[in-house]
């Protein structure tokens, strides 16, 4: 069994894409702490270097950063 893609990945988030720095199976949502499979990662903040499970979590993080 290949353990290369197990555990949490380390990612650098860019404006339009992301770079995987350390392989893994998922990244945790900065708001909910839920694991997000890398093939389902669609929302993140390049400025805060955070991943979000969905648009609602992204909005919540943005509101928190504004306040």
Explain the layout of strands and helices.
Elements: E1 10-13, E2 18-22, E3 26-28, E4 35-37, E5 43-45, E6 50-52, H1 55-66
Antiparallel strand pairs: 1-2, 3-4, 5-6
- Order of the strands making up the biggest sheet: 1-2
Secondary-structure element series: EEEEEEH
* Span of the ends, CA to CA: 47 Å
The total count of helices amounts to 1
Integer count of domains? 1
Q: Strand share of the residues?
A: 25-35%
Describe the structure.
The protein is 18% helix and 31% strand. It has 67 residues and is α+β, with helices and mostly antiparallel strands. It has one domain (10-66). A two-stranded antiparallel ribbon has the order 1-2. Strands 3-4 form a two-stranded antiparallel sheet. The longest helix is centred in the C-terminal third of the chain and has 12 residues, at 55-66. It is globular, with a radius of gyration of 12 Å.
List keywords for this structure.
67 residues; 18% helix; two-stranded antiparallel ribbon; single chain; alpha+beta
In summary, what is this structure?
The protein is an alpha+beta fold and 67 residues long. Helices cover 18% and strands 31% of the residues. It has one domain.
